[in-house]
Amino acid sequence: MAADAHAPTPSEYIVHHLTHFNGTGEPQKSIVDFSLFNWDTIFFSVLMALVAAALMMRAVARINSGVPGRYAGAFESLIEFVHEQARGIVKGDLTYIAPLAFCSFLWIVLMNAMDFLPLDLLPKLWETYYAATGRDPHHAYLRVVPTADLNGTLALAIVVLFSTLYYGIKIKHPGGFIHELFSAPFGSGLLLAPFNFALQIIEYAAKTVSLGMRLFGNMFAGELVFMLIALLGATATWWGFGLHFLTGLGWAIFHILIVVLQGFIFMMLTLVYIGQAHEEH
Q1: Is residue 264 part of a domain?
Q2: What's the number of domains the chain is made of?
Q3: Domain of 43?
Q4: For residue 56, is it within any domain?
Q5: Is the residue at 259 inside a domain?
Q6: pTM of the model
Q7: CA–CA distance, 88 with 221 (Å, rounded to integer)
């Protein structure tokens, strides 16, 4: 935070770090707000997508050179692992499904990994920029973990939803897909059709919301724990600094598992939902 007449209280510190940069200079009114763009989420999402693309292009260049080495070998092993998972879940052509699963896994892991950056590093630089341009640094909000924003994770889940609908229509054809909407799970019948359709809509909505909420909840909680650990270091006592170091180190090590696991879970659920779109009910 920028220097002021008094240091921020713990609640002020946390609220400031949990506020997105949306161009208004004010905190958002709700956790999901589609009336504004969270530009920090968009920026870091695109940045991590470019990093993922650069990593994959580097691996491809190594493989094409004839001397792949350990880097390309690690990528090849990971791709084969994802392809095996896709083959075991989706009963159909994996030409586009397996790459979709792999890209979602790598992209989400990279976005999650932004949580390992020092908590105040980029926000402090953002505040310095604000002050240098004559603006109030107290309004220099910035969050660097895109998956800790429910707007971002719901957007990812909606992409999975549309992928599911696309493959459902492609595999079953429009007529078969619409017939299934009104005939499953209770069976065909004019009286049962409204109940079947309502349940299908609820199922699609529940899958989408739960997919986005699961990723968001885990990453938001991890980000909040890092903030609480950071506050320990602000106590200006030896025991506070000691706890700050030990708990921060322990949580960072444990968080490695969370970062990778959440990317894996999202990838697997994506495959499961697309696999269900290939099945007849």
Answers
A1: yes
A2: 1
A3: 10-277
A4: yes
A5: yes
A6: 0.89
A7: 32
State the Cα–Cα distance between residues 141 and 212, nearest whole angstrom. 23
Identity of residue 43: F
What are the tens digits of pLDDT across the range 50-71? 999 999 999 888 887 777 788 8
pLDDT one-digit tens code per residue, 241-281: 777 778 888 888 999 999 999 999 999 999 999 999 988 76
Tell me the two tokens of residue 171.
Answer: 């595999």
Does residue 5 sit within a domain?
Answer: no
Output the DSSP codes for 86-114: HHHH--S--TTHHHHHHHHHHHHHHHHHG
Query: What radius of gyration, in Å, describes the C-alpha atoms of the chain?
Result: 23
Tokens coding 88: 């075991």
Angle at the Cα of 103 from the Cα atoms of 97 and 106, rounded to 5 degrees: 140
Active-site annotation, residues: 210, 214, 218
Separation of alpha carbons 273 and 223, rounded Å: 28
